[in-house]
Amino acid sequence: MRRPELRALFFRRSVLLLWGFMLTILVAPFFAPHDIRSPEQVSTTQYQPPSPNHVMGTDNLDVDLFSKVLKGSQVSLIIASTATAITLAIGLAYGMICAIAGGWYDAVLMRITDISFSIPRFLILLAISSVVTEPLSVPQLILLIGMTGWFDVARITRGEVAGLLKRDWVLAVQATGVGHLRLAARHIFPHLVPILVVMATLGIGHTVVLEAGLMFLGAGGLNGSLGNLLQDGSGISSMTHWWMVFFPGLAIVLIVLACNALGDALRDVFAPEQVHAWPTT
Amino acid sequence: MNSTTANSMTSEPLLSVNSLRVYFNTPEGIARAVDGVSFTVAAGETVGLVGESGCGKSVTALSLLRLVPPPGRIESGSSIRFNGKDLALLPTEELRQLRGNRLAMIFQEPMTALNPVLTVGDQVAEVVRVHTKASRSEAWARAVKMLAQVGIPDPSERAKQYPHELSGGMRQRVMIAMALILEPQLVIADEPTTALDVTIQAQILELLRDMRDRTGLALLLITHDLGVVAEMASRVIVMYAGEVVEEAPVHALFENPSHPYTEGLLAAIPRLGEEAARLKTIRGTVPPPTAWPSGCRFHDRCPYAFDRCANEAPMLLQVASGHRARCHLIEEPERRVRGVEATASVLS
Amino acid sequence: MSESSVAPKSKPLVMPNSASASPLLTVSNLAKHFPIRTGVFRRVTGQVKAVDGVSFTVNAGETLALVGESGCGKTTTGRALLRLIEPTGGSVEFDGVNVLSLKGEALRRLRRRMQIVFQDPYGSLNPRMTIGAAIREGLIVHKLAEGAAANTRVRSLLEEVGLRPEYATRYPHEFSGGQRQRVGIARALAVEPRFIVCDEPVSALDVSVQAQVVNLLQDLQRDRGLAYLFIAHDLAVVAHMADRVAVMYLGRIVEMAPRASLFAMPLMPYTQALLSAVPVPDPRIKRQRLLLAGEPPSPANPPSGCVFHPRCPHPAKDAACSVIVPPLEEKEPGHFVACIKQTPTRVDWDVQRAAGGSIPPERYLPRAQ
Q1: Does B68 contact A at CB distance below 8 Å?
Q2: Measured between CB atoms, does B25 come within 8 Å of chain A?
């Protein structure tokens, strides 16, 4: 049914390019030209600008920046994907429960969501991280990001499910004696998959930026993510050693672009059923 | 006013459709929704265009006013002559002047055909203002008068209401008001009562008959309901699979259906007062417009089909004066041997 | 995709339970009111009385048709007695069980016995489930079969409704309206019900397809001994299917009679108008229409007394009609009518006069068809 469109989608130039890049990131650390853990001689190759040997230059510890950027992208993506997965899981469950429960439960729970949604997420995360005495570890970071991002997922899910529940086939399923749990898992969930996929791709891009921002401001500990790299490269060295900031930043931009391109394209494919090409006679 | 034009004096009918073909480009291939349809409507005549889903009748109606949405297109070679002009070739501006003025359309779903953000009075008045030089107040006054004519109680108050405040029957009356206010020569009604309750339908049909008597308009009534056709039309055209398969004066059609599809259709209708044990059916289903069957398009569902039917597409053949059917049986009546169900004529 | 020409499998005849005196389904004073909420605080300011005191019975193996126009409450009635919508009043007894008091597992078990077929063939099937999976749900949920056995059952059900068994792996959008309707019927049959609410099952179908589905429903009834509540607005179809007919108007039953009696001699002025409004596919018959004035009123604001009185053409209509709510009375054997002006009536002339009546009741039978 949608196969031809999916195929067309994956051949869009933008998507191809950017996902080529993404694949590189994911696979590359295994092929990084220089091991980031073992710096070479301490003095002679510090802070080198980009050269054929080190395409993105080196940092203050004389580690190849390219390798670090690759690894950092990997870390950022892992954090972002896991956090987004948590977000989707919570939001999906919450939204479905609201829609199926209906009535007062729905109203109250959604109001809670709306209120939470209005609180600026970034500031909250920043505030939490500054209150905590030790820098956030990666799992902690993931959890925090994940648990603050599910509000709009819940709202969208609830809207979709509420619409679905009005259809006759849902009544038919209920008339067969199917309980709520089976109804949600077996019958309604398949309808949500397209939207979840779109939300996932866009969410990952968004979360990468969020996480980079947090790391940049020192919210988390040293984990080698792109935000960390940005943090390293900022300050004095950003003036004289531009590559320290430029390349991590470029990586972030490309990741977000890739995610957005894919998310948009997926949204086109999974858009509401197109009207028949000809009017029904 | 201008309902009886010079046309009734000339021999050319008011509307003359010739070899109309409307095709759609779809991912599954070309959909030949209307595939060579020809018919005429004389001034003051009521013609019923009948068929089930997938036959092409609605697309035919839309194409008369060039309202077919893309990717549909009217193929070259089609001709739609109205008042001597070919609508298929007319420049858009001239066509616009005709729409609503000489040639009007009533749609099936009043809720979607009316603009929800304008009052009904405004919408009726707009028709007047677009085509005449009437002022706002004049147009409004005419609109209110028209609403009264179509049987809306308290018209001056109702005119200020919005479509969603009116019932289905009322909305349909508003649509009729919009269509008839400039006394067009031809009104195309696309399933005007299908979405209405049967008692309201009765009222609307009565109204249409009234307006028809009053203004002498010609009516092309598109429907799947043979009961409505029997009541309203003087001549009937039956469509199947994008083609005209039978056309006849209404009595002739019901008393002597010559195409097996018409026969089957008439036999399948449940009728009050005839509680037979089983309804007669037409076996099979309507084919998709991307893949019309070869030869006679009805052959795979026809109880009388013989070898010629799968290979050779029949032409419209004369049965009697004014009565034609697209079937080989006209030439070979001895082949009319029943295979399965279906009675010949319910009225014999 | 051509329709399977497989004839429905013939099964041994199941005799309907005509020996037993008690009906299969008894509905008493069923009501469903929807609150109207207005204002910021959504206070309840009124009620939409979609169903307002409906009572009827259905015997095993028979078809009761519920007829009326849009807004009369027939669809709501059908869904309410299955508890797909929760009724706000009245009682429903099925096979000796009080339906409205059931909960949880007991309610689920009831779902096997009472099923529903919907009007809209395009909305009544989950577009993302194969039709085989949709039919199988009932078998799984009620543990009637699983795995290969379930698949076999599904295939045999498809054959029974006239579809090819190999269609089980296809999706709803690959089928026509009539075929989807057959799938809906197969789904209802999967759990082996005794009673099916057919909610306008053929209204959305073309005439030729409609005939096929009507025949199918009749065959299934005969073969399986099913009872139907057949909800429709098309009286001609009803005339073919029904054993008894109940006419609804604005949430109430206004006439109920055996089919022949209703069509031969409709006593309720609304029924008379309804019958005369049906267009007849015969141009020779010049119908003398009984046109009803005005529009059906809104169920949120029903007229007082007899809900039909503002549009009623009965010659004896008077002020009493707007005061007295007419009871459903037996005016002919088995033929119940809610009209105080149609003789005979047990609403005394004195009572009527006291309510403002000025014209005595009389038997009014306009020239019908």
Answers
A1: yes
A2: yes
Q: 3-state secondary structure string, chain B?
A: CCCCCHHHCCCCCCEEEEEEEEEEEECCEEEEEEEEEEEEECCCCEEEEECCCCCCHHHHHHHHCCCCCCCEEECCCCEEEECCEECCCCCHHHHHHHECCCEEEECCCHHHHCCCCCCHHHHHHHHHHHHCCCCHHHHHHHHHHHHHHCCCCCHHHHCCCCHHHCCHHHHHHHHHHHHHCCCCCEEEEECCCCCCCHHHHHHHHHHHHHHHHHHCCEEEEEECCHHHHHHHCCEEEEEECCEEEEEEEHHHHHHCCCCHHHHHHHHHCCCCCCCCCCCCCCCCCCCCCCCCCCCCCCHHHCCCCCHHHHHCCCCCEEEECCEEECCHHHCCHHHCCCCCCCCCCCCC
> How many CA atoms lie within 13 Å of B313's alpha carbon, on the beta-carbon side?
11
Is residue B34 within 8 A of residue B56, CB to CB? The reply is: yes
Chain B residue whose CA is closest to C234: B198
Q: How far apart are CA A35 and CA A39, in angstroms?
A: 8
How far apart are alpha carbons B249 and B262 in whole angstroms?
Answer: 13
- Cβ contact (<8 Å) for A171 and C171? no
Nearest CA in chain C to A169: C124
Is the CB of B20 inside 8 Å of chain A's CB atoms? no
| Residue B244: closest CA among B56, B63, B76, B62 | B56
| pLDDT, tens digit (0-9, with 9 covering 90-100), for B202-233 | 889 989 999 999 999 999 999 989 999 999 99
CA atoms within 13 A on the CB side of C227: 21
B112 interfacial to chain A (CB closer than 8 Å): no
Length of chain B: 348
Tell me the residue type at A202.
L
Mean pLDDT over residues C118-139, rounded?
A: 88
Query: pTM above 0.95?
Result: no
Lowest mean pLDDT among A18-27, A129-138, A168-177, C236-245: A18-27
Q: What is the DSSP string of chain A?
A: --HHHHHHHHT-HHHHHHHHHHHHHHHGGGG-SS-TTS---TTTTTTPPP-SSSTT-B-TT--BHHHHHHHHHHHHHHHHHHHHHHHHHHHHHHHHHHHHH-HHHHHHHHHHHHHHHHS-HHHHHHHHHHHSSSPBPHHHHHHHHHHHS-HHHHHHHHHHHHHHHTSHHHHHHHHTT--HHHIIIIIIHHHHHHHHHHHHHHHHHHHHHHHHHHHHTT-B-----HHHHHHHHSTHHHHH-THHHHHHHHHHHHHHHHHHHHHHHHHHHTSS-PPPSS---
CB contact C58 to A (< 8 Å): no
The dihedrals phi and psi of B163, each to the nearest 5 degrees, come to: -50, -40
ipTM: 0.81
Task: Enumerate residues 6+ apart whose C-beta is below 8 A from C227.
Answer: C16, C24, C25, C58, C59, C60, C61, C62, C63, C64, C194, C195, C196, C221
φ, ψ at A270 (rounded to 5°): -95, 20
CA–chain centroid gap for C73, Å, is 9
List C-alpha distances in Å: B281 to A131, B49, B254, B260, C235: 78, 21, 17, 12, 19
Cβ-based interface (< 8 Å): residues of A facing C: 1, 167-169, 171-179, 182, 186-187, 190-191
Select from B206, B224, B228 the Cβ nearest to the Cβ of C291: B206
Q: What is the percent of chain C with per-residue pLDDT over 70, rounded to a whole number? A: 92
Measure the CA–CA gap between C103 and C79, rounded to whole angstroms. 17
Nearest residue of B to residue C69 by CA position? B197
B 264-323 residues with CB < 8 A to A = 289
